[in-house]
Amino acid sequence: MSDMYADFKEQPGDDPDDVLFNTLYGVRTIQLNRPKKYNALNGSMIRKIIPRLKEYQKSALASIIIIGGAGPKAFCAGGDVSQLAKDIAENGETGQATSKSYFGLEYKLDHLIATYPKPYIAYLDGITMGGGVGLSVHAPIRIATENTNFAMPETGIGFFPDVGGSFFLPRLEGFLGTYLALTSESLKGVQALYAGVATHYIDSSVLSNLTARLAELVFKDYDNLHTRLRIIDRTIEEFNTGLPHNEPPHLAGNLRLAIDYCFHYDTVEQIVSALEKERDSPKAPSQIKEWATKTLEKLGEKSPTSLKVTLRQMRLGARWNTAETFNREYHIAAKFMRHPDFVNGVSARLIHKPATKARWEPDTLERVSNDDVENFFKIDEGEDSLDLLTQGLDYDRYPFERDLGLPREEHVEEVVKAKALGRKRIISTMVEAKEGKIGVIEKVEEILGRRAGIDGEGKVVWKS
Q1: What is the CB neighbour count within 10 angstroms for residue 210?
Q2: Active site residues
Q3: What is the tens place of the pLDDT at every residue in 192-244?
């Protein structure tokens, strides 16, 4: 192993069985194996996964990589931040340095996944939060099941949505990413598909059969990554068991309009004010008033510093490429390791049993200044940069986002504006383009209901 991979050698105390690797013809499976800890990611696991991914990358026999979690409850519930907070509380600056090293290791793995040159598939079967998001959302194929529970809960523990959240979240449709980042709202089951977090939805009972079927695929030597992913995409649809009964998109219609309106602002104070107006408006539907009330309560529980840094992160991250994303997050994470809210938040919410209310410093939005926020984004002189493992494969948009997953708003807008068609014809055109993929009808109907109208001739017109 070269010096580049010296950080990934086994260390004293590493559990030899916290990640299991298996081979099934051309498929290589990675199973996170800490079910009692909800497969929480730690340094020992990362030190095993990175060398294996590099090995699979070089092997002509390895065609598809699949990552999943052991046990019935979680894919991966996050990074093991409890241990990091304990280390900082007990060892001060030494603990901060150790925690920074851990995040550097984690972000190298996440970036490797984001730029991986072979098909990489994530089974989001169960809790998928924090560090588990980093192992999955940058994969070109992300499969949700009825057990999926996706969230980014970092603002509630005095941290920020890292693991590439700066890249992934701002690129969700509208201001969904900002909403999920600030509120820690969870997406369960098929809702992860509708929101764009997952690219596919199947029942968990067929995952093992899907793995076996994918192992039967044989690609031609000249098939590029795009072609291989399209073949895999069609193969997954063979295991379509239908969508859950009576479970349409939740973040839709008036609620989605309210999310995009309230969370488009560039300061947390403006977002709070917009939510208060929705809550107090006599014209707002009861559903929206209730949502605004609950959202304000959620924001009131979060670290004020985390909220302000996270909102700034969402706006800046929309312009970062993948390499800049992980380098920037590396420095932001280091700043949080030196901020009292991280230890206070993790201790209160995750370490104390039962969980207690965190004591934030500062404890109000007003006391967090713009300079305080901007300091998190400054790279101090002499600070080390993240030595990423992949060079030359970075991008500004996910390269396969148009081909995989459900149609996005901009894709529906293109069809509406290009052709004078009725509603049914628009939907059938989108379904045909996606080769009958499940969820397309529901997603397109929601978009048209919210963003389009009908002219005097019965044709669909896009609302400005």
Answers
A1: 20
A2: 79, 131, 154, 162
A3: 999 999 999 999 999 999 999 999 999 999 999 999 999 999 999 999 989 99
Cα-Cα end-to-end distance for the chain: 56
Do residues 40 and 131 lie in contact, with contact meaning Cβ atoms separated by under 8 Å? yes
Instruction: Please write the tens of the pLDDT for every residue from 69-89.
Output: 999 999 999 988 999 999 999
* Rounded-to-integer distance, Cα 313 and Cα 178, Å: 9
What are the C-alpha distances in Å from 94 to residues 89, 101, 173, 210, 245? 10, 11, 41, 46, 53
Quick check: 289 and 126 in contact, CB under 8 A? Answer: no
- The secondary element (H helix, E strand) that includes residue 200 is strand 200-201
φ, ψ dihedrals at 247, nearest 5°: -135, 75
Which amino acid is located at 88 in the chain? I
119-176 confidence digits (pLDDT tens): 999 999 999 999 999 999 999 999 999 999 999 999 999 999 999 999 999 999 999 9
- The secondary element (H helix, E strand) that includes residue 61 is none
Q: Per-residue b/e over 256-275, b at no fewer than 16 CB within 10 Å? A: bebbbbbbebeebeebbebb
- Using alpha carbons, select from 183, 156, 167 the residue that is nearest to residue 133: 167
pTM of the model as a whole: 0.95
Contact 64, 101 (CB under 8 A): no
**Positive or negative torsion for Cα 373, 375, 376, 377:** positive
Residues in the chain: 464
Whether the predicted pLDDT of 278 surpasses 70: yes
**For 6-23, b where at least 16 C-beta lie within 10 A, e where not — what string?**
ebbeeeeeeeeebbeeee
The overall average pLDDT reported for the chain is: 95
Closest C-alpha among 238, 233, 246, 151 to residue 203: 238
Strand partners, 68: 31
Beta bridge partners of 354: none
Q: 315-356, pLDDT tens digit by residue? A: 999 999 999 999 999 999 999 999 999 999 999 999 999 999
pLDDT at 30 over 90: yes
Exposed/middle/buried for 60, CB within 10 Å: 0-12, 13-18, 19+?
Answer: exposed
